[in-house]
Amino acid sequence: MRVLIVDDQALLRHSLALILDAASDLTVVGSAATGREATRLARELAPDVILMDIRMPDGDGIQATRTIAGDPMLAACRVLVLSMFELDEYVYGALRAGASGFLLKDAHPDELRDAIRRTHAGESLFAPSILTGLVDHYLRLPRAAPTRGLELLTAREIEVLTLVGRGLSNDEIAAEFTISIKTVKSHIGSLLSKLQARDRAQLVIAAYEGGIAGTAAEV
Fold first, then answer.
1. CA 89 to CA 54: how far, in whole Å?
2. Where along the chain do the CATH 3.40.50.2300 domains lie?
3. Which domain of life is it from (predicted)?
4. Among positive and negative, which fits the CA dihedral 67, 71, 73, 76?
């Protein structure tokens, strides 16, 4: 997996590169210190995953994420935000801009490497505290109507949605039900369609709004 590191701190970029290059399946193909440079290198290097900081000079991470996510030539590239901020307006902005997930900068190296692999595999990944804050934020917003589409779900799809709402990965869901990853992905696709959800983050919200995933504090 080809990774582009974007952060305005040179020491952190170097440290992240050492952590990622230590894994045989990860290769750092470049690094950028600004949002503008990140966009240029994304188009030039076509990485699989971009580790994106938020606060940077000359085009922040939100602007860069929006540009990258909106570029048809970079449709296969996914952005994983690596931030020191837990659920502030910057992280919400990155979510709207098209980021695939959010991880805090104090994450363990193994957690970071796993997050990149899962992001590359098409999963939306959130640090537990960020996921909790995300759910709490959306549940405090006024709702025009109850979550629609839950009545269309099969019993197994409800079970899968419950685990998605608790932050489990596809691998963890497959192990829980002793089914294949392919079957899990099929269920996820069906959930996205029936609930008219854009991504996995919206499935998490649907699970909580539908009252089938417990409380946000349990995430």
1. 11
2. 2-126
3. Bacteria
4. positive
The CATH T-level fold of domain 2-126 is Rossmann fold (3.40.50)
One digit per residue, the tens of pLDDT, for the chain of length 219 reads: 999 999 999 999 999 999 999 999 999 999 999 999 999 999 999 999 999 998 888 878 999 999 998 899 998 899 999 887 665 667 777 777 888 888 888 889 999 999 999 888 877 777 666 666 666 666 565 554 556 788 899 999 999 999 988 878 888 899 999 999 999 999 999 999 999 887 777 787 788 777 776 543 343
Read off the DSSP letter of residue 70.
T
Residues in the chain: 219
DSSP 170-204: HHHHHHHHT--HHHHHHHHHHHHHHTT-SSHHHHH
Cα dist from 164 to 55, 153, 171, 187, 203, whole Å: 29, 14, 11, 11, 7
Tell me the sheet residues that pair with 31: 5
* Residue 190 amino acid letter: S
CATH number of 137-218: 1.10.10.10
- CA contacts within 13 A on the Cβ side of 135: 27
Q: Is residue 1 within 8 Å of 49, Cβ to Cβ? A: yes
Q: Against a cut of 0.85, is the pTM above it?
A: no
CATH 1.10.10.10 residue ranges for the chain: 137-218
